[in-house]
Design brief:
CATH superfamily of the domain at 255-411: DNA methylase specificity domains
CATH architecture of the domain at 255-411: Alpha-Beta Complex
Shape: elongated
Strand content: 15-25%
Number of helices: 14
Number of strands: 24
Structural class: alpha+beta
CATH class of the domain at 255-411: Alpha Beta
Length: about 475
């Protein structure tokens, strides 16, 4: 049951007391110039308060800094703002009333955002539905109370904004701390004392020797299987001479690492393979439908498995396309700053594959810690991927050759175990604090809505009547 409004208030359809004016794109607009002097308030300027586009004087709808603007077209239809002046953008509208305080109207529309945004019209691009907007019941307080309500909202919002700013600062500091932990880890500073106390562990050189033995063994097994599939049996071992060992990594401009570590190319320690290509027109016989990972699933330092799609995989390709526990995943394409992002597959889904825009790097030696390489790829490695990535009109990409040459630091196995434990211990603490901060940010958002609800039900201030 809805609470009754104070007796001195009125509830009126919004359309009875408000008018709207849709924006329009000027013919002559662009960067500021001698002719273009009036700010054009597009959606970006609406959000930031900083116009990037200007227009020549003309007969176009205008707004002042005190006017209330509402997003009329697009995913954020119903979002309101103010504080900018110029020509109104084509996806925005000005909304005002001749009898209502503009601040009072502004905060009321804020309280109605979810309702307006979820009741839009249009196919493809949503638009504010005028019938929905104008039929909203607008609780109108007496004129002398409107200013008091606005002042009280702003007082409480000011306190709330201060608390939110503090929470955001904490979150930013946590992000910096997380980066410093990973930086210290991949530079060896996190295990500096451990190395001094444990000088007699297997060296990284010896570890790499063992890895390369497994690398060659894997190549020989694969080549032998190919020959047998063609009905051929090798007469001698001459075919083994075709094996190509890994090249030495290029270590210019790389961070310093401990003397007991070494640099290696990714293809020295892992087998790299692209995934299955999605082709709806291709008919596959003897196929099995499997869940597969897309670029959207492979995030920086974690896997987002909330939305998983399926794809048909030829059964004879299953052995090479199924993910295995410990596979390191790298994204092949996207925005330049997202190249190479990834994480380690830990068998979260039984029989899962991956698309061709994702690479998997499978360790030749299982005792090596793939997480450490993934953390390195997600931090220092970004400079490499951004430098090597090929840019097309909209997207950037890396290929298998670039990924194969990716230089990674290789610590001794025993030290890798200690590193992983130290990193995960610190990240676990950071994540717990981040979660608490996010909870409080959501709580602040709910409190903001609660303040608005009280304001427009007559509960925020004591109503004295007209």
């Amino acid at each position: 049951m809805k609470a009754e409004l104070p007796k001195s208030w009125k509830s009126l359809p919004l359309g009875d007391v408000c008018k709207t004016l849709k924006g329009k794109k000027p013919k002559n607009s662009g960067k500021i110039s001698k002719d273009r002097t009036i700010p054009y308030i597009n959606i970006k300027a609406f959000e930031t308060g900083i116009p990037a586009e200007y227009a020549a004087p003309g007969d176009y709808p205008e707004c002042s800094k005190t006017d209330v603007l509402i997003v009329w077209d697009g995913a954020r239809s119903g979002l309101t703002g103010r504080g900018v002046s110029g020509y109104i953008g084509s996806t925005l509208s000005k909304i005002w009333s001749d009898i209502i305080d503009s601040g009072y109207l502004y905060y009321f529309l804020q309280s109605q955002y979810d309702y307006i945004n979820t009741n839009t019209k249009g196919v493809g691009i949503p638009h504010v539905d005028p019938n929905i907007l104008y039929s909203i019941n607008f609780p109108v307080a007496p004129e002398n109370e409107q200013n008091l309500i606005v002042a009280e909202i702003e007082k409480q919002f000011s306190r709330l904004d201060e608390a939110v700013d503090n929470l955001k600062r904490v979150k930013a500091n946590l992000k910096r701390y997380k980066a410093s932990v990973l930086k210290a880890a991949v530079e060896g500073k996190l295990t500096e004392e451990w190395r001094e106390a444990n000088p007699d562990v297997e060296s990284a050189d010896k570890l790499l020797e063992r890895i390369l033995v497994e690398r060659r063994k894997k190549w020989e097994e694969t080549e032998l299987a190919k020959m047998k599939a063609r009905g051929k049996e090798p007469k001698d071992d001459k075919w083994k001479k075709k094996y190509k060992g890994p090249e030495k990594p290029k270590v210019e401009n790389l961070p310093d690492i401990p003397a007991t570590w070494l640099w290696a190319r990714l293809d020295s320690v892992t087998e790299i393979k692209g995934g299955i290509t999605k082709d709806s027109k291709r008919k596959i016989k003897n196929a099995k439908e499997l869940p597969y990972l897309r670029v959207a699933n492979v995030q920086r330092g974690y896997l987002d498995l909330d939305k998983i799609k399926y794809i048909k995989v030829p059964e004879d390709k299953l052995p090479e396309l199924l993910l295995k526990n410990g596979d390191i995943l790298f994204n092949e394409g996207g925005d330049r700053d997202k190249l190479g992002r990834g994480w380690v597959w830990e068998g979260q889904i039984q029989e899962c594959t991956y698309q061709n825009h994702v690479f998997r790097a499978r360790l030749f030696l299982n005792e090596v810690a793939g997480k450490f390489f993934s953390w390195y790829g997600n931090t220092f490695g970004q400079q490499y991927f951004m430098a090597k990535g090929k840019q097309t009109t909209n997207l950037a990409s890396i290929n298998k050759t670039m990924l194969s040459a990716f230089p990674i630091p290789l610590p001794p196995v025993d030290e890798q175990v200690i590193l992983i434990n130290k990193i995960e211990e610190r990240l676990s603490m950071i994540n717990a604090v981040e979660k608490e901060v996010d909870i409080n940010l959501m709580r602040a958002d709910r409190l903001r809505q609660s303040i608005l609800k009280k304001a427009f039900s007559g509960e925020l201030i004591h109503s004295k009547g007209p």
